[in-house]
Here is the input.
Amino acid sequence: MLAIGSILLSFEVHGLLLGDFEEVARGLALGFSIYLVIAGFAHVALQPHQPQWRVAPLSEESADTLDDRLKLLAVMLGINSFIWIALDVADAGTAFAGLLSLFGFSIIALGLWPILGDRAWYRSEASMAAENASGEAVDPRLYVTARRLLRLVVLTIPVTALAGYYNLSEFLTRNVVLACALFAAFSGLTTLVSELTSAMLTADSGPLKQVRRALGVSEDSGRIVHFWIAGFLNILIAIGLFLAFLPSAGVPTQEIADFLETGLSGVKIGNFTISFADILLGIIVFIVALRVTRMAQRLLEKRILPQTRLDTGVKNSIRSAAGYAGATLGLVIAVSTAGIDFSNIAIIAGALSVGIGFGLQNIVNNFISGLIVLVERPVKVGDWVIVGGYEGTVKRINVRATEIETFKRATVIVPNGELISQSITNFTLRNKLGRIDIPVGVAYGSDPAAVEKILIEIVGTHKAVLSFPKPRVIFQNFGASSLDFELRFFIANIEDGIFVRSEIMYAIERTFRERHIEIPFAQSEVNFKDRDLDRIEAMLARFTPAPAAAQEKEPDDRA
Here is the structure.
């Protein structure tokens, strides 16, 4: 296009275009330019034989076919543009103008018809595989209904021109071509937006990585953020292109401008005024407030709270309270920015209170209980607790529920209302000091004093056992098969109790075996009466084989 324009400008400057030939040259330049633009963009977007660069999700054959047919349409449009300029130059009459209109619109319809055929719109294998992931049957053709409607309109173009309705034919031709061009622009722009957003959210180095870090987007959440950002921008592109199409469809430009101004300034519905600009600004303010809140939480967590002597639970409560306060403040500011009156919100809140009283009691109860948990801290993150039969470590305290991770790595969600209303066993509420009890049984006849001395020696040599409170051995009971003792000792960190208990029990078994102290197992005595002995003897005789000497003597007896 630049080359053609340069040549045309050079001819004009040097006076080489004389008379009507100047308009003819302009027509030729315009026709060639239209061909080059359409053919060039079509080839770039479709990229036959290079699927990795292809914008449209088309198969190789469809991309090649559509590329050729778009070039044909470019030729038709270029010829039509030249004809219209030549018509102005020739100052032709009405009849000849009608004949040229019929010819021009017909060749454009001839170029549009094959483009809308099925052969040019088959999906690529990758697109089909993605669509078939759900297991449902997918039509391999793209935009079937829309293409059929456009084909019907294209068929109407030469018919209306032949009937003499040149204005209608020109209206249909212009809008079909413009609609196809805007659709191509939408496909290209949305692909560009998707690629740029994906590059920004997955960048591993450079400025884009800094942008991703500033947004606080992790690799796991990048896919979701990409979907919403790209979707929002695609909607804006679609709205912009649709507004660009409306003047060609006959909608006055001033009406479009008035509609946009009304939507931005506010639409009054009853006592409410809805302004899309204010709503958008409110959403942006809320998002910014959330980002500032997250930054403040990270500052508290990484810089400020580590410089204090507060325990982990207090630090977590402060961080959570800062997050709730920031989110609440951001919501209030966003609502004010959106132009919503707080008196109206109070009316809505009063109406919602009825629903809360009937159906949302548990949610409100859990929310208030969550605030109480954060303030009173009966449990805190990292505590070892038993709640409702579940034993594990507190991982997160949310507004509605608390997450407990069991020692089997299962996560239990406990509503905060249950934490307030029922008993909780917290092994590490004040400190991690804890007592371990190990029952020990020895055989009757063992020296209890020696057993006590040995147990005290065993726990005294273990580095995890505290000397104060000092270990104790309790003689608890005369059991059915053993003398029952209980070894009690304290350790500094109860979370290591299961390992210390196991090591102490290994040491007890080994020491008792070395010192010949028997650890008995359950025993029972069975007494028989004299009258049962004959029956037992007869039963044993039936199942006991005869002696070998008796078996050898038996044939001689028969003889």
Summary: The first strand starts at residue 267 and ends at 269. The chain has a mean pLDDT of 81.
